[in-house]
Design a protein that fits this description.
Helices cover 19% and strands 43% of the residues. By secondary structure, it is of the alpha+beta class. InterPro entries: DUF6503 (IPR045444).
């Protein structure tokens, strides 16, 4: 498989076309209309069940609760007989390990901290809130979009950067030119080539009216090494 990074940079260097006469912000609006047609993300309250499969490791099963209006986040993750629970309720953070408040030794041995709790909150809210999260303050959407083919399939590519203090990575989002569904995204650490990862999206799970990618397969940009797959389902 050809490296997605190489394809991207060659394409951006050689194909500087306005796709279908859309601007970046216009493409984003069409993508949001596909994924969140009723504008429900800002008031999202829901539970996500995510299984993470990684090579040579047991699965990690997570139950994630996101309540944006009440600034509440909860994740319970179980792997290899260990269960961690993080709650961020506005500014208050709570940690449980195997159902109990962890000792300082358990925190250190298992990397448990409120910093990690907030990292998970931001991580899950960002990735499962895409592409709507690209409307957040501090996000800078390129006016020009580009056409690129990956594995023979055409995409409209949107580039996003962030203001100082918000983020340093450069992100690229690949949308289906017919439906405007998000099918790939990629980030470069500090914008440097051959860093970061790309993520292939497949399937769709509709949760509280929002279409979220069901399966996300992660790869390194530098060598296409497979990292793992997240599988989403809603709580029945």
């Amino acid at each position: 498989m050809k490296k997605l990074t190489t394809l991207l940079f060659v394409a951006l260097a050689t194909i500087s076309l306005h796709a279908q006469d859309l601007t970046g912000p216009q493409l984003l609006e069409k993508a949001i209309q596909y994924h969140d047609p009723q504008g429900k993300w800002e008031s999202f309250k829901g539970t996500l069940l995510v299984t993470m499969e990684t090579p040579n490791s047991p699965n990690r099963d997570s139950e994630i609760k996101i309540d944006l209006p009440n600034q509440y986040f909860y994740v319970k993750a179980t792997r290899a007989g260990k269960t961690t629970e993080y709650t961020v309720d506005k500014e208050k953070c709570t940690i449980l390990f195997n159902g109990k408040t962890p000792t300082e030794e358990e925190k250190k041995a298992n990397g448990l901290s409120c910093d990690r709790a907030n990292l998970y909150k931001n991580y899950y809210s960002y990735l499962y809130g895409l592409p709507m999260k690209l409307k957040d303050p501090g996000t800078q959407i390129d006016a020009k979009i580009n056409k690129i083919k990956f594995k023979g399939k055409p995409y409209l590519v949107l580039r996003a950067t962030y203001k100082e203090g918000v983020g340093k990575d450069v992100w690229f989002f690949y949308f289906n030119p017919k439906t405007y569904a998000m099918e790939i995204y990629q980030f470069l650490k500090n914008g440097e080539q051959n860093t970061g990862e790309y993520i292939l999206l497949s399937g769709m799970e509709t949760i509280n009216g929002i279409k979220m990618p069901k399966t996300r397969a992660w790869y390194y940009n530098k060598d296409d090494k497979y990292l793992g797959t997240d599988i989403l389902k809603s709580k029945k």
